[in-house]
Design a protein that fits this description.
It is built from twelve helices and seven strands. By secondary structure, it is α+β, with helices and mostly antiparallel strands.
Length: 287
């Protein structure tokens, strides 16, 4: 293939981005892996899930966050620097390292002893009764994130617990399990939609837990245009938003490999070369 040295000989201002799971060097550089594996090496997977078992957080953290978003940022930063220096460079994106960087704040908490390594024992991992999800009467869920005192006070008010003389201090961790049980019982008295009527739009720091199919129909998402319908399929609109040059979805996704031939021709390969490459299965989707 074309390495960075080959490309730089043609254009020394190029930004050559390489994204892998483990990185270009190190003992695991040549080993296969997936999002879950890269996250496991950072400590993030150990922190997510129930008390008895870590849970894979889909593939949005390492693949998309630590990988794709780090790559986009790295390319943009490289282009900006090249405009000033006149020199391009290689950007090495490791999904493992990008994911670790996303957890920078938690590493800091662990370093100073403000984080417990047992799952569901901390404020942000479901251990605190005021920062977790609760099941509702209709077996759906709501999320509560009432960390600050004024938000927590409103949570107590709207759940009917305010004024109870037996309420412990909000940050008394020894009482978090008992308070979680009390709130769990309260939230099971109403459906998710009924709790939305009580709390949504208030400063409780509340939201219903929606499925992927439900999310596009939520009034806030509809008002913002968070999702767009493309040939009958709801999908997220581009983000972030630009006020002068707004982005948009140009069309539905093509079949995998559908544009391989056109792309190679546009890049300067002649038709015979493309035919030979495709016949040899050197390019195109192989299944």
């Amino acid at each position: 293939g074309l390495g960075p040295d080959d490309c730089f000989r043609r254009n020394r201002k190029l930004i050559y981005a390489r994204m892998t799971g483990w990185g270009q060097t190190g003992p695991l550089a040549q080993a296969a892996g997936h999002d879950l594996n890269y996250l496991s090496l950072t400590g993030i997977v150990h922190a997510i899930g129930g008390k008895d078992l870590p849970a894979p957080p889909l593939n949005v953290v390492a693949d998309m966050g630590g990988g794709a978003m780090s790559m986009a940022l790295g390319i943009l930063a490289g282009v900006y620097e090249a405009r000033n220096s006149g020199e391009g460079q290689v950007v090495d994106i490791s999904m493992t390292e990008g994911s670790a960087y996303l957890a920078l704040g938690v590493y800091g908490m662990a370093a100073v002893g403000d984080y417990k390594h047992e799952r569901m024992s901390n404020v942000l991992d479901g251990g605190a009764h005021f920062y977790r999800c609760y099941e509702t009467k209709d077996k759906k869920f709501v999320s509560i994130a009432s960390i600050e005192a004024k938000f927590y006070d409103l949570l107590l008010e709207k759940t009917g617990l305010k004024g109870d003389e037996n309420l412990p201090d909000q940050f008394d961790q020894s009482q978090w399990p008992a308070m979680s049980e009390r709130l769990a019982a309260v939230f099971k008295t109403k459906t998710r939609d009924e709790w939305c009527e009580v709390m949504e739009g208030s400063d409780v720091c509340f939201a219903p837990v929606l499925t992927f199919n439900e999310a596009p129909n939520h009034p806030h998402n509809k008002a913002r245009g968070t999702f767009v319908d493309v040939e009958g399929v709801a999908q997220p609109n581009p983000a972030p938003r630009f006020n002068r040059t707004p982005g948009s979805v140009k069309g539905s996704a093509p079949e995998v490999g559908a544009d391989t031939r056109d792309g190679l021709l546009a890049w300067g390969f002649d038709a015979a070369e493309v035919d030979a490459l495709m016949e040899e299965k050197a390019v195109g989707w192989q299944g």
